[in-house]
Structures are given as structure tokens and as C-alpha cells.
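Archive transcription. Copying these from loose printouts into the bound notebook so they stop getting lost. Printout 1 of 2:
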Amino acid sequence: MQFDVQFDPAKNQANIAKHGVSLERAPEMDIRAVLVDERHDYGEVRYRALGFIDGVAHCLVFTDRQGELRAISLRRAHQKEMKRYVSQANG
């Protein structure tokens, strides 16, 4: 499923430096689960999507800004995140 994504170019460069992946790759993600990120008060609702890019598990953090998906971070998913996803998917 392809989708449109917006992001700040400076944030994209920071994401590449930190995580080695461009926010431009977010639309390629085969999303399997979306969770509300309630770990902190960000001043806006943030979501964490878990899915795959080229068969590799990734985590996309994003928000909805006026009906547009605004990418905040894209990185390889941690093993713990994927285990949680698998256990929830299997009931």
C-alpha cells in the first residue's frame, strides 16, 4: 500500500544520520500494525507503525497534521517491538 508522507528536510537528514534510513522510504513500508504512542506527552497524538521495507522490520513514528501523514522518525524496529506485535497479532 503506497501512501503520501510529508516531512521536514532537516529532520530527514537527522534521521539518516541517526538511523541510516531516509524518511522518503516511509511510503514503501508494508504496514502491519499502528499503535498510539502514549509513552510521553508530545503535545500532539503520535503513532508508531510497525511493518516491513524490503523484508526488514521497521518502525515509523508519525502524526496526522491537517489530514496529512507527517513522518517524525523511521528506523529498523527493535526485536522487542516485533515480539510484542507478533504476540498481539496471535492473540
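Printout 2 of 2:
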Amino acid sequence: AAGTPARIGYNGDFWGASISGVAADQGFYAKHGVDADIKVFTNGPIQVQALGANSLEFGYLGPGALWLPATGKAKIIAVNDVGFSDRVIAQAGIKSIAELKGKKVAIAAGTSGDMLL
């Protein structure tokens, strides 16, 4: 018998979020009667769009998406504190934040990194 369908998204590079994929691979969802369709995203804003378009029922999102519950566009069902998971990735030779002065930086708009920058 098929389980209850659930479309679940997560960011592949977000600390701890891959647990959704591992749970599917290990049969956790099926064991509990859930037919999980796991989708991997590259950032939170794209996942937010999928939630808004009803392409997902659940998403594992970073702090950049915390504005959604305040606007009535989402509900928080669990919080995971992954502290210190944001990082700056620099070209070889840059060893400190001070060495970024005068350099160009790139960030995906609407992400937790965008909030920090």
C-alpha cells in the first residue's frame, strides 16, 4: 500500500539538511507510512518559490526564510539550531576577512548569507 505522499525539499549544501535524503535512502519515511518525494535545492529562495507554488509540502530552510511565517506564508513545525553554518569562501591567498577589503563578493539574494552580508 502506498503511504501518505509528502514532497520534501532541502538545500544540499546546508548543514544538517541532508538528513532528509538520508532518511529517504534508509527507508525511514516508508517505515512510518510516508511516500516521500525528496527534492534537492541549491538555495533557500528557490525552495521558498516551490513552497509558494505548492510544489512542496515541507522544506528544510535556513534563517533567510524566517520572514515567511511572519507574513502568513508558512508555518514553522520545528527549529534546528545549526549555529556557525554560514561561511565565506575566498580565492586562494585570502587568509582573513580584512583581506577582502576592496574585493568583489557574490551572494545569492534572499539567503541567510545575504542577511549576514
